[in-house]
Amino acid sequence: MSQVLNIHAENPQLRLVRQAVEIIKAGGVMIYPTDSAYALGCRIGNKAALQKISQIRQFDSRHNFTLVCRDLSEIALYAKVDNSAYRLLKAYTPGAYTFILRATSEVPRLLMHPKRKTIGIRIPNHPVVDALLSELDEPILSSTLIMPGEENPPHEIDDIKGDLGHAVDLIIDSGFCGLEATTVVDLVEGSPRLLRAGKADTAPFQN
Predict the structure, then answer these.
(1) Pairwise CA distance, residues 200 & 82, whole Å
(2) What DSSP character marks residue 15?
(3) Where do the domains of the chain lie?
(4) Which residue in 28, 46, 114, 183 could disulfide with 23, CB within 3.0 to 4.6 Å?
(5) In terms of Cα–Cα distance, which of 43, 64, 201 is closest to 121?
(6) Domain 3-199: top CATH class
């Protein structure tokens, strides 16, 4: 069974955050809160953890994984950001958006879309995520927790514990955090293209 840490949503306890980061660094897969819904996360370079997330979500090889980053400077290490994309990222992060961009050579090939060589980028607005990223000192490989056959993420943490307690190494319980996935916007071709309507406002990206 997974370890459960009850971390305060607004004032994360540093001791527990550090405990969570140690599990991640050791190769663990976690379920953690974001500003849109609970998500699955692990360390970037851990192939076994990545495969575990893929099995839980039942992804195919064309899935775009997401890197949860601290700020725009960290994004620039992993994604190619031109001036127009930078302005959009600056305007709409942090927030419940995932932006699709071309990946740099810093991104392991396993994480990229195999044909487009793209990666999802996200800066959530959530104190627990901020604390985790600060202690980990690198992005979190992440995917919204949407189970196969479902359209929306689960929102009851007790249901998440019951259904996935055997499948992950860590569950961070911060109470209710939302029940919508992120809004996904493709910035690869220059002009924004809305791929998925989610929690964040879609109006700025409507064609």
Answers:
(1) 23
(2) H
(3) 3-199
(4) 28
(5) 64
(6) alpha beta
